[in-house]
Structures are given as C-alpha cells and as structure tokens.
Amino acid sequence: MRKYELMYIIRPDIEQEAVDAAVEKFQGIINNGGGEITKHDVLGKRRLAYEIDKFRDGVYVLVNFSTESAVVDELDRVMRISDEVVRHLVVNDVA
C-alpha cells in the first residue's frame, strides 16, 4: 500500500450536514477499499485564490491515507462527478 495525500474543496453554499455527509462518503470509499486514514482535517471555510464556478470561498479538507491505487482511481472518479466538490487533488505522500 502506498501513502497518499488528498486535498479537496467543498462548495461553501451547502449546509453543514451536507458537508459532513460528503466527508463521510469520501472516507467510506477509502475505508471500504481496504485503506487506512492516518490524518483527517476539515480546515474550514477559506478564501480561494481565484474564483471557481462563481465561488470565492470553499471548505477545505485534507486527508492523509494509505491504500492501493485502484481505490485512488475510484476516489478520483467519484470526486469528479460529485456536485459538492469544487476542486480536488490526490498526490503521493513522500514524507
């Protein structure tokens, strides 16, 4: 299993319950695929560097985890089609 770092930004105009549901959904994909989450931080609402889809703010979430590459592919696919995610990035964690 490899270590990965995931940063994603959730739309600021949805309710807190929807934010929690989205976070749980993405954690479930990692856990159900046999992965292990080592660190999970909801950094809260922050200002974006530039406007994305007419949003100036977003709820930032940072996740460090280890899993197989097939789970990362599935996580990437689900995040691309999720309406609540504005941007996401998964990178190999070398530290």
Report on this model:
It contains 2 helices and 4 strands, in the order E-H-E-E-H-E. The protein has helices spanning 16-32, 69-81, and strands at residues 2-10, 36-52, 55-67, 85-92. Helices cover 32% and strands 49% of the residues. The protein has one domain (2-92): 2-Layer Sandwich (Alpha-Beta Plaits). The mean pLDDT is 92. It has a 4-stranded antiparallel beta sheet, with helices on one face. It is an alpha+beta fold and 95 residues long.
Please specify the SSE layout and strand pairing:
Layout: E1 2-10, H1 16-32, E2 36-52, E3 55-67, H2 69-81, E4 85-92
Antiparallel strand pairs: 1-3, 1-4, 2-3
Describe the structure concisely:
With 95 residues, this protein is of the alpha+beta class. Helix content is 32%, strand content 49%.
Helical fraction: 25-40%
Outline: globular
Q: What is the CATH class name? A: Alpha Beta
Radius of gyration: 13 Å
Tell me about the biggest sheet?
4 strands, antiparallel
The neighbouring-strand order within the major sheet is: 2-3-1-4
| Count of discrete structural domains | 1
Q: Which spans of ≥5 residues are poorly predicted at pLDDT below 50? A: none
Q: How far do the termini sit from each other?
A: 15 Å
In sequence order, what are the helices and strands, one letter per element?
Answer: EHEEHE
Instruction: Give me the CATH fold name.
Output: Alpha-Beta Plaits
CATH evolutionary superfamily: Ribosomal protein S6/Translation elongation factor EF1B
CATH architecture assignment name: 2-Layer Sandwich
Function: Binds together with bS18 to 16S ribosomal RNA.
GO cellular component, one term: ribonucleoprotein complex
Family: Belongs to the bacterial ribosomal protein bS6 family.
GO molecular function: small ribosomal subunit rRNA binding; structural constituent of ribosome
